[in-house]
């Protein structure tokens, strides 16, 4: 069974492996980021917890992966594409009632991440080279089938990020 600890370890591995001389190509934040945003943590506390390890400034940054675990045990993901100023919503087993709540929460995650990145503690060249940050348009990710079982859904989610 997929657990929060497994996803955090996977996120850490991806994040550390993406380091390059100009910085990481993508961020893969741990599920605790969603928990902290949901818990309305202060911006300074979020910066202290995530900036140096999970969100290193990078002029080559293209994506931010935001896995979310709900209290029900259901996983979904938001993927921010900085160049397109878009956030993709990936959810393999969604119902119409849950879609709006999940998309609204991804919007909160995107706006909190934008506030963090535009904080004065980040290098000014970061936002100049990556482009404007914030106001991400929410879009469904193509190629992700709905209503599939958890193992297959996880395979699609992890495979989608490498396309």
UniProtKB/TrEMBL annotation:
Keyword rRNA-binding: no
Record keywords, A-Z: Hydrolase, Protease
Residues in Ubiquitin-like protease family profile domain copies: 61-118
Keyword Hydrolase: yes
Family matches, as SUPFAM superfamilies: Cysteine proteinases
Pfam families reported in the protein's UniProt record: Peptidase_C48
Family of the protein in this entry: Belongs to the peptidase C48 family.
Name listed for the protein in its UniProt record: Ubiquitin-like protease family profile domain-containing protein
Native species: Stylosanthes scabra
Upper lineage: Eukaryota, Viridiplantae, Streptophyta, Embryophyta, Tracheophyta
